[in-house]
Amino acid sequence: MDVDIGNALAAVASPGVSRDALERLDDRVATAHERIETGRSNDEHGYAALNLPDRTDPDGIRQAVDDLPDLEVLITVGIGGSALGAATIVDALGGARGTDGSQDLETVFLDNVDPVWVNDRLAALPLERAGINVVSRSGTTAETLGNFLVVREAFEAAGVDWTERTIVTTGEAGPLRELADRHGLAALDVPGGVPGRFSALSAVGLVAAAVGGRDLEALLAGAAAEADTLRGSLFECPAYAYGATSYALDVRGAHINAMMPYAESLETFAEWFAQLWAESLGKDGLGQTPVRALGVTDQHSQLQLYRAGPRDKLVTFVRPRETVDRQIPGTTVDDLAYLGETTLGELLTAEFEATEASLAAAGRPSVRVELERVDPFELGGLLYGMEAACVLAGELYGLEAFDQPAVEWAKNATRGLLGGSEAPEAEAVAEKRTLRVER
Amino acid sequence: MDVDIGNALAAVASPGVSRDALERLDDRVATAHERIETGRSNDEHGYAALNLPDRTDPDGIRQAVDDLPDLEVLITVGIGGSALGAATIVDALGGARGTDGSQDLETVFLDNVDPVWVNDRLAALPLERAGINVVSRSGTTAETLGNFLVVREAFEAAGVDWTERTIVTTGEAGPLRELADRHGLAALDVPGGVPGRFSALSAVGLVAAAVGGRDLEALLAGAAAEADTLRGSLFECPAYAYGATSYALDVRGAHINAMMPYAESLETFAEWFAQLWAESLGKDGLGQTPVRALGVTDQHSQLQLYRAGPRDKLVTFVRPRETVDRQIPGTTVDDLAYLGETTLGELLTAEFEATEASLAAAGRPSVRVELERVDPFELGGLLYGMEAACVLAGELYGLEAFDQPAVEWAKNATRGLLGGSEAPEAEAVAEKRTLRVER
Q1: Mutating which of B240, B276, B297 best tests the A interface, going by the most A Cβ atoms within 10 A?
Q2: pLDDT band for position B360 (50/70/90)?
Q3: Cα(B91)–Cα(B181) distance, rounded to whole angstroms?
Q4: Could you tell me the domains of chain B?
Q5: pLDDT tens for each residue of B243-267
Q6: Which among B80, B256, B263 has CB closest to A256?
Q7: What is residue A94's predicted lDDT score, i.e. its pLDDT?
Q8: pTM, whole model, 2 decimals?
Q9: Chain A residues near residue B137 by CB distance under 8 angstroms
């Protein structure tokens, strides 16, 4: 990815960061880079994620996937980092194909336990032509295992042997591994030392893409090429330029980071980024709040706030430089004639440039991240680059970027409420304070 | 809707609002309510939106829709307030049916100009069984009119007469009205005095629901019932309780409002709310930033940040009290046995209560909004209640909630860049400051 931080400079925006301040911050980037490189060479927890492009074995993933029958639908059962990386890749690359290379593959992500929705999805899918991709490192995630038990039963009720069309990605031990062994399911490993939100470039994120026949080698090569750009200066490394600028803007008051891709295919990428940023950096009272946006759509929803609301936002634009295009047909209606002389792609580009400039004209900071196009190589680079940016930001904040301790309380309470444990957290639920205003 | 603000009180959370402060604020709520009632009785710009439940004519909408042939697909071409209300209603009520009452209706929203995505959508749809619902008050919105010209051409290329299957909702004059008149299209009016983001309960939001055979009367009746709850005290009116609490929390530091429904069918509602809140209140350097979230999914993405990050957030939960349910099948795997004694619905409820309590235990404010269930009546009440909450908040901030002046700059620049005008804004685009960090 290429990064342009010109519109985040203090000369343009407030909050903004001066060139001098960036030079000073660059000393800390150099130190952080050394720490990151040490973590990588020792394969330390979390840092190990930045080694995935070299460690992930695309052949192994493809072999496991090749054992599945031909599929028209792949149902991925997972949540959080066990779903978002896979969904991001599938949605970005689109047009996934079946293993025979011809038919379209429909990809479904069961990442919620709403019974209305789960019922509707399962009722609508042709289970006899569907496969199951179930992902949970611990093998105990309540939502994922609950949904998997439901999906399994739905296949049985439809008279379909789910054991021959299920692939499991999980840790070395745990209930899901036990189920895989018991039923002889195709199984892959969640890599050690890699938190879920950093696992898109492992089997966790790649199984769905492999079933769709995507080019895993190109994805990993793009990530590896991005890894080669890591060096101890934000002025020489796009990923660090992004991470350092986001950090510098946050501490200057831009506590919100609106991730706004100008490509529908990258809408899910903004969701993935939001998890990466929130779970890694949201701790100790710190962390920039990610907001998921979409160009041009959110110009008609969020731009008023971004341009004229509180000065607490950095807007991150992500855009591919090349896309296919489509001519807008001409019309004799006067006020629309100019549209007939342009294309949807030119309109999209003009709207992007206009929105970026409109923020700058109002002194609001933004960063532009550019890809050549949305393809496996460039997408691999984008995912890796954002992960490296996040790890760098964690170092600059002085945070432990690789844990998520604050989610344990609710997990314990949920299990306690359902009788799966005697968690004291469950008792606090009943003590809720109320001030109800009712119809 | 019912509202419980107990977990936003200072006794629970920081930031939080004390009961005493709410009592004092209630005097201002009474004054604001008088202003709102005056605006409503005079049908003033914006305030007129709160009269829609009585003004909207469901028969007129149904008659216009009845002129269309039987449809399997409805393509809505609109953006911002011309799409989000309709999408919210269709997504919430689901299972829309064709005009003959049997077949399923597929609803598609073309609310972006990404050519890759527009091409893919149009190529995948059976145009000979599709209709077009095009919505733009001014009739000049570049994205909507550009897409409409493209869609029209695609129908022509497929040999389908688009004029007999297009319904237009627009203002009294303008290019879209001109096109409707020229081709004899079915046409409905955008109501006067109602900004797009407040127009869900007019033809703008209801045409798609009408084509799907939804119960428009129940939607409007639910909204009317909510209107009947408006009175000059936040302790007696759910909508004002929500609007006043959000305002009170914002000025105490909760500058972010995370809207987190615990129902997949309300995911689009969070998008609609985000536009309502951002465009109405995001001005003069003020306004709470809406964040779109989803329970339980975002517990595995955003909860770490909400519970342990900066104390700058209010979380708004929206949940239906009743849903259909589905038993989780039992398993002999020890660690999962407890799941087999519960249902997906019970798991969802436990997760919701646990998440709400986990925020309270960490002293983070939240508000609970409850519906009986997701049905037309309750949805109408929710949409109306949130609109009234937003109007009240606008009064409390002392803002003009019904305009969106900050988006004009980029619109002018876009048109200038495409040669449709000689806008000076277009020149600023070329003067962009850059600091590029490239691979």
Answers
A1: B297
A2: very high
A3: 31
A4: 2-36+221-397 (3.40.50.10490), 51-214 (3.40.50.10490)
A5: 999 999 999 999 999 999 999 999 9
A6: B256
A7: 78
A8: 0.97
A9: none
